[in-house]
Amino acid sequence: MLAWCFLAALFLRANTATTCGPSGAAVHFDFDDGTAGNLGSGGSALDGILLNTASVGSSNALSGQALQIPTSSGALEIGSAGVGLGSVWTASAWFRSAYPTSGARILFGGASVSNTSLANIPLLTNDSSSFLGVHMTVDDSFHPFAPAVSLDTLDNGKYHMLTVVGAGGVTTLYVDGVLAGTANFQSTTEISYVGNSNTFTQPFAHQVDDVYVFQRALSATEVTELYTCGALSGTLTTTTSTTSTTTSTTTSTTSTTITSTTTTTTTT
Fold this sequence. Notes:
By secondary structure, this protein is mostly beta strands. It has helices at 2-15, 220-232, and strands at 25-29, 48-51, 55-57, 66-68, 75-78, 83-84, 89-98, 105-109, 121-125, 132-136, 141-144, 160-167, 170-175, 178-183, 190-191, 193-194, 205-214, 236-247, 254-264. It is built from two helices and 19 strands. Helix 1 crosses helix 2 (220-232). It is globular, with a radius of gyration of 17 Å.
């Protein structure tokens, strides 16, 4: 299936240069024109706003240019009020060079709630671990994906794509187009920030690229297609479905490590 999707995306890229992957994204930042302009259906109202030290540049970009977060205060804000999620949604981004574990690390963050720092956060790591999960204001708690997925195992100097799909009260995580885990909690509010929290103290990674937000739930096949399109845009190590399973010594959670074994080189 992955090979078929790769060939289909290659054909599509050759024949429709500006279109690849699932349609209907409300937000899409590819940063390749040197700005954080929104290429999605939400238009300029959802253009990205570079905050503090964040910039767009070619250093270690997946393709062309990428969002650069060189210090802990950098972030990208989506419009002036974020993009609403509703009952079904998908958010996806590629990242490289995660920040060290010194607190929570937030890839997609919501706006502040009641003038506090709390927010529904569709994807982050916990303060005390590198496990990926979601944070909900309803109980002010972090809920890891099961099986557990560690950000540190993906921090190998290569780009990886993280995708979260919210539907039916469940958030599903995909790593490099492969189903990796679920959490029985789901945000239905908004995504306002990419790469950091609303307090600008919880950066996720030094580079973030090819950001998507859909106001619908992508299927597993569409997530794979989205990954394939990103993989076509540069040189990276792809992830196979081979996994190794270990048991954490500090929790009773089973940790699944996604391993990279196949190298794909694409010239654009």
